[in-house]
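Running this now, will post back.
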Amino acid sequence: MARISGIDIPKDKRGAIALTYIYGIGKSLAITILEKSNVDSNKKVSDWNDKDIASIRDVVGNLTIEGELRSETQLNIKRLMDIGSYRGIRHRTGLPLRGQRTKNNSRTRKGKRKTVANKKKATK
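Update: finished.
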């Protein structure tokens, strides 16, 4: 099993797919990384030799990935909340940020439904 930037890469997958297990690396970036390191993107991870893994580590080492990227993202969200921007307020209240409607959908952001019971009418 190959280990790149603290993540165990699955050995039974193709190289381009296996690199996407690292946070911050998508499919297109994975293909670019493999091209820069002169490794075939269709080659399985189990077929990589030590030279291939070392060249991939060199290319990946220059990228902002994993914990550093997560903390950077959290700092950006915190900055938006601190300055009180629209997006920051939406983050704080747990509502969708990008203009989606909230009357019917947006259950992912709002969470499970909280039923509000009707007030009982007073009897005379």
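The chain has two domains: 2-62, 67-110. More later if anyone needs it.
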